[in-house]
Amino acid sequence: MENKLEFKKISLPVEGMTCASCVARVEKALKKVDGIEDVNVNFATEKVSLSFDPKMVDEKKISSVVEDAGYKIDV
Questions:
Q1: What is the number of structural domains in the chain?
Q2: pLDDT per residue as tens digits for the range 15-44
Q3: N or C terminus: fewer CB in 10 A for the chain?
């Protein structure tokens, strides 16, 4: 029996980013979270796209991490 990881992909709007440093701050905060596999923050579209293991992390945790970094995210 093979254990296959099932990652969920989502794209969420992030409010409050004003520069490239903001993008880096959001990416850095999310990459520290166990269970988040891939993070891409786009300043132009004000969105974060990510892949995560829903068994390890959920949208509520993702929202909390982004808000703790100083930004608003709609989950």
A1: 1
A2: 999 999 999 999 999 999 999 999 999 999
A3: N
